[in-house]
Write a structure and sequence with these properties.
The active site is at residues 19, 145, 281. The protein is an alpha+beta fold and 308 residues long. It is built from ten helices and 13 strands. It has three domains: 3-87, Rossmann fold, CATH 3.40.50; 96-112 and 178-303, ATP-grasp fold, B domain (D-amino Acid Aminotransferase, Chain A, domain 1); 116-176, 2-Layer Sandwich (Dna Ligase, domain 1). The strands form three sheets. Strands 8, 9, 10, 11, 12 and 13 form a six-stranded antiparallel β-sheet that branches. Strands 4-7-5-6 form a four-stranded antiparallel β-sheet. The chain has a three-stranded parallel β-sheet with strand order 2-1-3, with helices on one face. A hairpin with a 2-residue loop joins β8 and β9 (191-192).
């Protein structure tokens, strides 16, 4: 599309989720990139502006993260208002935000996911530790950016990890640790971009490693064979489509540590339907590896904005 065809564009960022600060960083960079390309783009923070002020905008670039921005709510508003928007629709956004329900759908479709157990106040934590083995991860089902996640290493620590996760969400998952490496695949349209391997300086890829520290290593090429990477990129694209994803997004997966002589297996973790666009973010890294500048990436994502 030519830039004038975009019309007046709202860049939605900020919001009132736990990921507000990350969204402010993503959105300000997206806004600046669109304006550099001559797009008539304007900042719009739903926690400050009234939603009826979106009347008159012809497109929306969603740079909101977490609740009320990535979970289908703002997508529903834009559907009702008839404003085409970037990223996935209402259903896929809601599923992508919900780690439990996305796992249910993936598992039913044959996509491998780590073993997990839903937790609540009456869970037998000792039994869960035994069933899943240690270490394991405990996480809120509907938060992003590793908010509320704990790694449980010692017997008896699951209860405290549950309480921390439950501060952020009523739905909490305990998940078997898969420790052969963390990877991510950026999706743009019908294309899976080069895989990135993530090697955090911390024990796992937590909030600090994602946004605050400079000792996280990102490897692209990711170190997998060409054939294996091609296979996993196709599998990630299929996992994205199973949830109804469209436009752009990111699919995270883990590799296991197989016995000698056996091939490693991939286990899919989650989908991000409104990925970060900060200076630490993964989709811009993958785009660069594919020969695409940040500004070109942003314009291509906006060109995919749609309804329905």
């Amino acid at each position: 599309m030519n830039v004038p065809d975009f019309g007046k564009v709202a860049v939605l960022f900020g919001g009132r989720s736990a990921e507000r600060e990350v969204s402010l960083s993503s959105g300000s960079r997206v806004l600046a990139a669109l304006q550099r390309q001559g797009v008539d783009a304007h900042a719009f923070d739903p926690s400050v502006c009234k939603l009826d002020e979106l009347v008159g905008f012809e497109r929306a670039f969603i740079a909101l993260h977490g609740r009320y921005g990535e979970d289908g709510t703002i997508q529903g508003v834009l559907e009702l208002m008839g404003i085409p928007y970037t990223g996935s629709g209402v259903m896929a956004s809601a599923l992508g935000m919900d780690k439990w329900r996305s796992k249910l759908l993936w598992r039913a479709s044959g996509v491998p996911v780590p073993d997990y157990v839903l937790l609540n106040d009456s869970s037998d934590f000792a039994r869960v530790e035994t069933a899943l083995g240690l270490p394991l991860f405990v996480k809120p089902a509907c938060e992003g950016s590793s908010i509320g996640i704990s790694k449980v290493r010692q017997t008896g620590d699951l209860g405290a990890a549950y309480e921390e996760a439950a501060r952020h969400d009523s739905l909490v998952i305990a998940e078997r640790a898969v420790l052969g490496g963390e990877y991510t695949v950026a999706i743009l349209g019908d294309q899976a971009l080069p895989i990135i391997k993530i090697e955090p300086g911390t024990e796992f890829y937590d909030y600090e490693a994602k946004y605050l520290r400079d000792d996280t290593t990102y490897r692209c090429p990711c170190g997998l064979s060409e054939g294996r990477e091609k296979e996993l990129r196709a599998q990630a694209l299929e996992a994205f489509r199973i949830l109804g994803g469209r436009g752009w997004g990111r699919v995270d997966f883990l590799m296991d540590q197989p016995p000698p002589g056996s091939a490693s297996r991939a286990y899919f973790l989650e989908v991000n339907t409104s990925p970060g666009m900060t200076d630490h973010s993964l989709v811009p890294m993958a785009a660069r590896a594919a020969g695409m500048s940040y500004d070109e990436l942003v314009v291509r994502v906006l060109a995919l904005a749609t309804l329905g």
